[in-house]
Write a structure and sequence with these properties.
The chain is α+β, with helices and mostly antiparallel strands. It has helices spanning about 10-25, 40-50, 90-105, 130-135, and strands spanning about 30-35, 75-80, 85, 110, 125. α1 (about 10-25) crosses α3 (about 90-105).
Length: about 140
Amino acid sequence: MINSRSLDELIPQAKTRVEAFIAECHANGIDLLITSTYRDNDSQAALYAQGRTAPGNIVTNAKAGESYHNYRCAVDVVPLVNGKAVWNTSGEDGKLWEKVGEIGEKNGLEWAGRWKSFKEMAHFQYTGGLNLAQLKEGTVIV
């Protein structure tokens, strides 16, 4: 199973945007920890099982092949404050997440913190306007 944290696992179009996003966050005094980039289908299936048929909380609604991580165009991050991950997304911590989201969007990434259902504050992606069906068919992001 592969669940990478390396930006080198991303397609070039996503990697360039994520690098700019990270650099701008850093310039604004925000350090980010990359928690996931590319996931193979086995890793995605295991993550989907979490909170359903495996222990833990539900963290995704995407089955294997239904996550942009499977197509190397998504990244999950968490901001760090004094070296500690800030997973809380409400109150003052929520303001930090909002700033991270805005910076990601400014750098051409779609932020899942804006999704109407199942918001994923940590998730950013670059799809080149393609949907999952197109990616499954082999259409290439440009």
